[in-house]
Specification:
Rossmann fold; globular; 2 domains; 42% helix; six-stranded parallel sheet; alpha/beta; L-2-Hydroxyisocaproate Dehydrogenase, Chain A, domain 2; 308 residues
Length: 308
């Protein structure tokens, strides 16, 4: 029997997640959205692409949360997208209601599911999702760090004119302007990036990474990024469903690691069949540690705005 994967939200991110999930043949996919006909239409379109793209799983759509019953994994993408001039935190109250409703239904219909959160503000919504579902912290994580590090990798590859697959990078902290790119832990085919790129250019690339989502929002004018966020989310789903034990920077719950407690924030983890199986504690220098603490402090303050 195929695994069952639910995608909450059939907008750009959700539909692209469904496409990537199907093309990876990870399992049957159901999209749920409040807009009548949209998840059904996109699902039918994706299913009809199967013979050409070589996938055999079924993609279905529904306007009823009952359709996610028994899902093994849920990707939460629903929420209001950013518009030019908006921060991820500007979306707080609107998306807290959307995520809260989804969380209640996930708890009801898919009580054994693992949950990957994409909705913004990411770290806050991941905490909210975990709190409402009551699931173990290991079963709820957010895709922030992997997306941010992917952007960092892409910018380094563009700078050097090398294959993107040769670049490994690490970005910690909140999924927003306080994220913490770590050039010390960034390599190209094992070569430290500081040996290949000047300090000034590394600083510029780090800053572009921090503003990576906003740059796309500004260019699109009517929406936000979706190809890379979907790709990052599906990579996480694959690691969980196939028990790959991948090391990813994800928004994970901290219970004292890095001197931080009771918050979700981007840190490197081992992601496998039991969800977040381990939080990896890197040796940070004074500035890196200070930046991570500042990021955590900001998001702890934002949590208070929705009652935590």
């Amino acid at each position: 029997m195929n695994k069952k994967i639910a995608v909450i939200g059939a907008g750009n991110v959700g539909a692209t997640c469904a496409q990537y999930l199907a093309e990876a043949n990870l399992g049957d996919v159901v999209m749920v959205d409040i807009v009548e006909g949209m998840p059904q239409g996109k699902a039918l379109d994706l299913t009809q692409g199967g013979p050409v793209r070589g996938y055999n799983c079924m993609v279905t759509g529904s306007n009823d949360y009952k359709a996610i019953k028994g899902a093994d994994l849920v990707i939460m993408t629903a929420g209001m997208p950013r518009k030019p001039g908006m921060s991820r935190e500007d979306l707080l109250n609107m998306n807290a209601d959307i995520v809260g409703t989804a969380a209640k239904n996930i708890k009801k219909y898919a009580p054994k599911a693992y949950v990957v959160v994409v909705s913004n503000p990411l770290d806050i919504m991941t905490y909210h999702m975990r709190s409402v579902t009551g699931f173990p912290h290991s079963r709820v994580c957010g895709q922030a760090g992997i997306l941010d590090s992917t952007r960092f990798r892409a910018f380094v590859a563009m700078e050097l004119g090398v294959a993107m697959s040769e670049v490994q990078a690490m970005v910690m902290g909140g999924h927003g302007d306080t994220m913490v790119p770590l050039p010390r832990y960034t390599t190209v085919a094992g070569i430290p990036v500081k040996e290949l790129i000047s300090a000034d250019r590394i600083k510029a690339i780090s800053e572009r990474t921090r503003m990576g989502g906003g740059e796309i929002v500004k260019l699109l004018k009517t929406g936000s990024a979706y190809y890379a966020p979907a790709a990052a989310s599906v990579d996480m789903a694959k690691a969980i469903l196939l028990d790959e034990k991948r090391v990813f920077p994800c928004s994970a719950y901290l219970s004292g690691q890095y001197g931080i407690k009771d918050i979700y924030i981007g840190v490197p983890v081992v992601l496998g069949g039991k969800g977040v199986e381990k939080v990896i504690e890197l040796k940070l220098n004074k500035k890196e540690s200070s930046d991570l603490q500042a990021s955590a402090k900001k998001y702890r303050g934002v949590l208070k705005e929705i009652g935590y």
